[in-house]
Amino acid sequence: MYQQDGESIFVIDAHVHLWDASEENIVHEGGEEFIQCFYDYHTTFTPEDLQWGMDEYRKYGADRMVRDLFEDAAADMAIFQPTYLSDFYEDGFNTTHQNAELATEYPERFVLNGSFDPRDGEEGMEHLEELHETYDIQGVKLYTAEWRGESKGWRLDDEEAFRFLEKCSELGIENIHPHKGPTIRPLNRDAFDVKDVDDAASSFSELNFIVEHVGLPRLDDFCWIAGQEPNVYGGLAVAAPFAQNRPGKFSEIMSELLWWLGEDRLLFGSDYALWNPDWLVEEVMEAELTQEHRAEYGVEWDLETKKKVMGENAAKLYDIDVEEKKAQFREDEISRQFGLEDHYASEEPAAADD
To answer: Among 31, 91, 238, 339, which residue has the fewest nearby CB atoms (within 10 Å)?
Structure first.
């Protein structure tokens, strides 16, 4: 938990990955371009002394991920958001099955999400049902710009996509996480356009659409859609690291989001390992809105707002009882491994990363 003003904030990192972009796993030049683009984002927004080497960035492994999330950072739980990219990587970039390595070892700490691609037809439908049956998934991450043979993307408001959303509703998979944000080389920017969320969210009011990356760079489009669709949420992955080296831009983004959506529909995410929560949580927690933005928008990035955005909103969507978790973490394997038992017993802050 992160400590601020004498209070403990339970942090759920709602967007993490355990990926494999090793050269041995790449089967298409797009796979190399993709991880190189990720690394460009990583070095642009990560403090210079905390940047990773490229070899480690390609494949960091489960042990490092657990340390980064729970030993070196103030994260308490994390939600896996898979990205398959099966045409680029032989075993996939980070699939639900790969992420399950950690999610099944530490089920109290991780939430495991699935995915679907409507271009897979009946085989894809069976895969979605298998993921639900095997892992009891509560959410899916969707990558509408993923290449599949001749196709370079799909739309969330397609007839076939609606069949899969109907199946999600039938199975009780309530949380839909479409990537609607910046492009990653060589994928197409327009295939990540946020506008197809509108019809899907209107048509499936019983589902929650957590738009990852809040539509950036199309923030206006996202806000106008979310402003009229109460089941549309904003995932702050990609927006969050602006707090580190573009504080004015971070203030502008958060002011827009808080004005349009309010404090109950925003979720923190690091996008690990694009960025590491060991520094990002602190940057976001200590960020401030500019006086100009506070006056114009009439919103605040105060402690009560941060509590919701950093953990409580995700807990509500995924039926996580925060107080029950705190009690559980006084003696779980992660706390024993990193000596955090007293931290959860006394609610003292976790050791800060230097």
So the answer is: 339
pLDDT 10s digits, 109-141: 999 999 999 999 999 999 999 999 999 999 999
Are the beta carbons of 19 and 52 closer than 8 angstroms?
no
pTM here is 0.96
Give the Cβ contact number of residue 275 at 10 Å.
Answer: 22
Q: How many other β-carbons are positioned within 10 Å of the β-carbon of residue 319?
A: 8
Burial class of residue 74 (count of CB atoms within 10 Å of its CB; 0-12, 13-18, 19+): buried
| Cα 112 to Cα 150: distance, rounded to the nearest angstrom | 30
Amino acid at 279: W
Within the chain, where are the H helices?
Answer: 29-45, 54-58, 61-66, 96-105, 121-135, 159-171, 197-203, 219-228, 242-245, 247-260, 277-286, 291-297, 303-307, 313-317, 322-328, 333-338, 341-346
Tokens matching residue 250: 């971070």
* pLDDT per position as a tens digit, 281-292: 999 999 999 999
Percent of the chain with pLDDT over 90: 94
Question: Rounded distance, CA 338 to CA 51, Å?
Answer: 23
Cα torsion through 95, 157, 211, 16, rounded to 10: 0
